[in-house]
Amino acid sequence: MSGTGFSIDAADGSPIFEFAWRDAAEPAVEALTEAFGTAPELSVHPGDGTHFPDYTQYDWRGFTLYDMVVTADGKARSEYATPTWASIRTNEIAGIPIVAEFGLAIGSTVDAVRGMGPDEESDLTERGDGYIFAFDIDRTVMFSEGSPVDQLVYSVFADTDEPGAEVVEIRYRPYSLL
Predict the structure, then answer these.
(1) What is the pTM of this model?
(2) Which of 113, 117, 125, 159 could serve as a FRET partner for 103 with CA atoms 20 to 30 Å apart?
(3) How much is the pLDDT for 145?
(4) Terminal-residue alpha carbon distance, the chain
(5) What is the DSSP letter of 70?
(6) Rounded mean pLDDT, 94-107
(7) According to DSSP H, which parts of the chain are helical?
(8) How far apart are CA 144 and CA 104, in angstroms?
């Protein structure tokens, strides 16, 4: 995983397949299905109708690729800052390791994540949730002078499920103050 997308690598570390966040998702779905040895479960993640479209969720039980649903009268893929994004909830699927940046891994403790040097920490424990840690927030690139860019660059977020717990989800999405 990286800020610009992800790759599926051979045992020697050479890339077999590379995906950038603005790319069409169909080839990625095919490559991930082949790598994981199973088809994803499909569902829809609703958007807000303006900033975020509805997304088709391709879920391989621990790795989810969210790809925008294009509508006949809606915005084009290039007009959304987040046409595709990913969520990780396991460290491997079918023996294939899923490697996030910064040393992040599912099961990392709050103290370990703090030691990795996040840019921001949101404490949601008062409402019964955990923490959200944001990494490399300055690298997010969605637009250039008001126009979409060809190469999107996302930040990384690590979420815990409850106070003092461990990381249960790692998300690759743009950092935004919205």
Answers:
(1) 0.91
(2) 125
(3) 58
(4) 24
(5) P
(6) 96
(7) 26-36, 110-115
(8) 29
